[in-house]
Specification:
With 751 residues, this protein is mainly beta. Among the domains are: 200 residues, Sandwich (Immunoglobulin-like), CATH 2.60.40; 192 residues, no CATH class. The chain has 5 helices and 43 strands. It has a 24-stranded antiparallel β-barrel. A hairpin with a 6-residue loop joins strand 18 and strand 19.
C-alpha cells in the first residue's frame, strides 16, 4: 500500500509540474499569428454555392494552407481560400477549393467517417479553452457531417443539429457555402472583445494530402484545437434570443417472440425530446417516453475474454456534451456509462434490449469560460422479463478550467431502484463520488489525469475506492504513456463500466517513430516501434493475476496503407476461478493455475482510396495450454458516391489438449450502406455468430425529409445459428427466435 501512495503522489506532482509550464504559455503561437476578421453583411447572403455577393468579395481571405499530412513543413499543393461573414441569424463560411473535378467520396450519407472522403471542414471553439468545440464538414457532393470536439482533439460525429450548405462543382475547383445558425452554436456574447478560436481543414484523398489554415503538427488530427487561429468579430455576434426546439415522434411496431411462443404483438407509441437554451451556452435536454428503435444495431464481436465488453453509445439524447458525463476515470474504470440507462442484456438472446425510459432531463454546457456543468436525471420503467425494477439514474458533474487547458472536475452519481420491499430497498442504492485533475498542455505534448473515486453503499464496506493516474507524452519521433490504477475490491459503480475490481495495475508503452527522407519518403511516411507492458496484481489473492508484454511495430505508407505487427507477445494468466478458454461451455481449466504463452501478430490495412479496400489481422501461437490461430478481416467495395458493400469476417481456431474443448468460432457479417441521395439512406447487416448461437439481420431505411426530421423503417430478425437443446426443447439451425418491424417518424420543430 505504501508503494501505491508513492506512485499516486508522483503522478500528481508530475502533472502539476507540467501544468505550471502550460500556465506560463497561456497564448498559443497560432492565435496571434493567424487572425481572421469577420464583418457583418450589409446585404442578403443567398446560399447558392456561388459567393458572388458584394459582402463575400469584401470579406477577409484566409488561405495558404499548411500540410499536416503527409508532412508538416510545407504548404499544401492544393489552394484554398476561405471567407467569413455573418448576419443576425447565421455565421456564413465560404471556401473555394482548387481541386479538379475528380473526388474520392465514400457515400452521400450524412455523418461519413473521418478520413474516408474529400472534405472541407471547420473547427470552432467559441470559449477559447482549446478543449471543447464544434466541427462542421462538407464533401464535394454537399454531404454534411457535424460533430463535437472534446478532450482537445477527439471528435464525436454522432451529434446531430440543424445547419445548411450548398456546393458548386466546376472543372478545376469546388465552392462550398455554409450557413451555421447561431441557435445551433453555444457561445457567450461580450459587448467589448469578441474572439473565437477557429481553424479550416481540407482533405484531398486523390493526392492523399491534408492541410489546415493554422498549422497543425502531423502527429495530431485535424480536430486538434490547441493549434487554432483566431476569429476576430468586428462587432459582437447577435444575441440568440429564445431558442426552444421540440422533436416529437410517432412509432408503430409489430413483433413476435418465437421462443416464448407468444402471439404477435402490435404497439403504437409517441413521445418527444425538447432542447431549451437556458443561456446561449447552457442547454436543457428533456425527453418523455423516448424510444430508440431507429438506432443502428451493435456490431457483434467474438469474446475470448473473461470479462464484459464495451460497446459505444449511439443514442442521440445522450451525445451532446457527453464528455462532461462520460470522460471520468479511465477506459476500464468509468463511473458513468450511459448504456446502463435504458438498455439491459437479455439472457435468452445474449443481446442488449430496451428498458423503457419514462422521462429524463439533462442540463449541460457552460456557465462561463472557465466553468462547465452537467446534471442528468432519468427514470426507467419496471421490466419483469429482465427482472429489473423501476430505477432512477442521476449524475452531477462540475468542471473548472485551470492554467491554460487543464481542469479540475467533480462528479456524483446515484442509482436507486423503486417498487421494492423496504428491506431490499435499503440495500439497493449505489452512489459514487469523485474528484479529478486533467492535464492538457498548451503545445498538446503532455496530457494526463489523476483521480480518486469512492462508492457509497448501505453496507459501508472497506476499500470502496479507485485511485489512479495516467500521463501521456507525444512528439513526432518519440512518445510514451504510463498509467497506474488501484481499484478496491468492494468498489461498485452500477452506472459505470468497471469489469475488474480488487486490482493494482501498471501499464505503459514507448513509441519510436522514424520519418525517412529522399526517394523512400515517396513511398513510406514513417516506421515505428512500440514496446508495451501491462501488469495486473490481485489484492485479495496477493499475487500477479495477469501480465503481458510485446514488441510492436509498423510501417505507414504514403498511399494510406499501413502494416502493423507484433514481433513477439507474451501473456501470463493466473486463473482465480475456473475458465473455459474455448468459450463454448466445455471443460474448464481449474482455478489456481497459471499459464505463460507466446504469440505473434500481423495486420495490414490497404489503400482506402481504391474502390476495393480491405484490412486483415492475424494472430497465431500459444493460447493457455493449447494453440490459437485467428484471422479478422473486412473487405469493402465503394460504389462511389452511393455507398459501401462490405463483409466482415472473424475466425478463431482454438485447439486445447483433452479433456478440454476445441472450438472454431466464426463471426461473419455482410453489410450494405447505401445513399440514394443526400436524403434517402439504406443500411443492412447480417451477422452469423456461432459463439452466441445467433444469426441477426437488421435493415434500416431513413428518409430525411427536412433537416433533422426523419422517417425510419427498421426490420430486425434473430435466428439460431446451430442445432441444439435449450430449456429442454430442441431447436434447429436458422429456426427463428424473434423478429420486429418498426415505423418511426420524428420532426424537429423550432418554437
Amino acid at each position: 500500500m505504501k508503494t501505491f501512495f508513492t506512485n499516486f503522489l508522483v503522478y500528481f506532482l508530475l502533472l502539476f509540474a507540467f501544468s505550471a509550464e502550460t500556465f506560463a504559455q497561456n497564448i498559443g503561437v497560432n492565435e496571434e499569428k493567424y487572425r481572421l476578421t469577420i464583418r457583418k453583411a450589409k446585404g442578403k447572403i443567398i446560399l447558392d454555392g456561388k459567393i458572388d455577393e458584394d459582402d463575400w468579395q469584401k470579406a477577409e481571405v484566409a488561405g495558404n494552407f499548411w500540410q499536416f499530412f503527409p508532412f508538416d513543413s510545407s504548404r499544401t499543393s492544393f489552394k484554398t481560400e476561405v471567407r467569413t461573414v455573418f448576419d443576425d441569424n447565421f455565421l456564413y463560411i465560404a471556401a473555394v477549393c482548387m481541386q479538379p473535378n475528380k473526388y474520392i467520396v465514400t457515400s452521400l450519407r450524412r455523418d461519413f467517417a473521418r478520413g474516408t472522403s474529400d472534405v472541407f471542414g471547420i473547427n470552432l471553439d467559441p470559449f477559447k479553452d482549446k478543449l471543447n468545440g464544434f466541427n462542421f464538414a462538407v464533401s464535394p457532393y454537399n454531404v454534411q457531417r457535424e460533430g463535437l470536439i472534446f478532450n482537445g482533439q477527439e471528435l464525436s460525429i454522432d451529434w446531430d443539429n440543424k445547419w445548411y450548405s450548398k456546393v458548386t462543382n466546376l472543372e478545376d475547383r469546388w465552392i462550398v457555402e455554409i450557413a451555421l445558425p447561431f441557435k445551433t452554436l453555444r457561445y457567450k456574447r461580450n459587448e467589448d472583445k469578441n474572439e473565437w478560436l477557429i481553424n479550416f481543414v481540407q482533405n484531398d484523398l486523390v493526392k492523399n494530402e491534408a492541410g489546415a489554415w493554422a498549422p497543425i503538427p502531423r502527429i495530431f488530427p485535424g480536430a486538434a484545437l490547441a493549434f487554432s487561429g483566431t476569429l476576430v468579430w468586428e462587432e459582437p455576434p447577435p444575441h440568440q434570443g429564445a431558442n426552444v426546439s421540440v422533436i416529437p415522434y410517432l412509432l408503430g411496431s409489430a413483433d413476435k417472440d418465437f421462443q416464448q411462443k407468444t402471439p404477435a404483438n402490435q404497439r403504437f407509441n409517441a413521445g418527444f425530446d425538447a432542447k431549451v437554451a437556458v443561456t446561449p451556452s447552457l442547454n436543457l435536454d428533456l425527453t418523455v417516453n423516448p424510444d430508440f428503435a431507429q438506432v443502428e444495431v451493435d456490431r457483434q464481436v467474438t469474446n475470448l475474454s473473461r470479462f464484459e465488453l464495451f460497446f459505444p453509445e449511439r443514442r442521440q439524447f445522450f451525445l451532446e456534451n457527453s464528455d462532461l458525463f462520460g470522460s471520468f476515470g479511465l477506459n476500464n474504470s468509468n463511473p458513468f456509462f450511459s448504456r446502463r440507462i435504458g438498455l439491459a442484456r437479455n439472457p435468452n438472446t445474449g443481446f442488449n434490449e430496451k428498458v423503457p425510459i419514462l422521462a429524463g432531463a439533462r442540463l449541460s454546457g457552460r456557465i462561463n469560460k472557465d466553468w462547465r456543468i452537467g446534471v442528468l436525471n432519468m427514470q426507467t420503467a419496471r421490466q419483469d422479463n429482465l427482472s429489473l425494477p423501476s430505477t432512477n439514474f442521476g449524475m452531477f458533474a462540475l468542471q473548472r478550467r485551470v492554467f491554460a487547458r487543464s481542469n479540475v472536475a467533480f462528479f456524483a452519481t446515484n442509482k436507486e431502484p423503486f417498487n421494492l420491499d423496504k428491506d431490499t430497498l435499503k440495500q439497493a442504492f449505489n452512489r459514487v463520488l469523485g474528484l479529478e485533475y486533467n492535464l492538457a498542455s498548451t503545445n498538446n505534448r503532455w496530457a494526463g489525469k489523476v483521480f480518486y473515486h469512492r462508492s457509497l453503499s448501505p453496507e459501508n464496506l472497506a476499500n470502496q475506492y479507485i485511485a489512479a493516474g495516467r500521463i501521456i507524452y507525444n512528439k513526432p519521433t518519440f512518445g510514451f504513456t504510463n498509467r497506474f490504477e488501484n481499484i478496491g475490491e468492494n468498489y461498485s459503480a452500477d452506472m459505470g463500466f468497471v469489469p475488474r475490481k480488487g486490482t493494482l495495475r501498471n501499464a505503459g508503452d514507448l513509441t519510436f517513430t522514424y520519418y525517412p527522407k529522399g526517394k523512400i519518403a515517396k513511398k513510406i511516411n514513417n516506421y515505428f516501434l512500440n514496446p508495451d507492458y501491462d501488469v495486473i496484481y490481485g489484492i485479495p489473492q496477493g499475487r500477479i493475476l495477469d501480465w503481458d508484454a510485446g514488441l510492436f511495430g509498423g510501417i505507414q505508407f504514403q498511399n494510406s496503407a499501413n502494416l502493423e505487427f507484433a514481433l513477439v507477445r507474451f501473456d501470463y494468466t493466473y486463473l482465480f476461478a475456473p475458465f473455459d478458454p474455448s468459450n463454448t461451455g466445455g471443460a474448464q481449466l481449474p482455478a489456481n493455475t497459471s499459464y505463460l504463452y507466446r504469440s505473434h501478430r500481423i495486420g495490414f490495412n490497404s489503400n482506402i482510396r481504391k474502390p476495393v479496400f480491405f484490412n486483415v489481422f492475424t494472430r497465431f501461437g500459444d493460447y493457455f495450454n493449447g494453440r490459437i490461430f485467428a484471422v479478422q478481416s473486412a473487405i469493402n467495395y465503394r460504389l462511389q458516391p452511393y455507398g459501401i458493400f462490405a463483409i466482415d469476417f472473424n475466425y478463431n481456431r482454438i485447439r486445447l489438449p483433452a479433456p478440454y474443448s476445441n472450438s472454431d468460432l466464426l463471426l461473419i457479417g455482410p453489410r450494405v450502406e447505401l445513399a440514394f441521395s443526400t436524403k434517402l439512406f439504406f443500411t443492412a447487416i447480417m451477422q452469423y455468430n456461432n459463439q452466441v448461437n445467433n444469426v441477426n439481420f437488421n435493415a434500416r431505411v431513413q428518409w430525411r425529409f427536412k433537416p433533422v426530421s426523419d422517417l425510419f423503417i427498421v426490420y430486425t430478425d434473430n435466428y439460431y445459428a446451430t442445432e441444439g437443446i435449450e430449456n429442454g426443447a430442441a431447436f434447429r439451425s436458422f429456426q427463428p427466435k424473434n423478429r420486429a418491424l418498426v415505423f418511426k417518424l420524428t420532426y424537429w420543430l423550432n418554437i
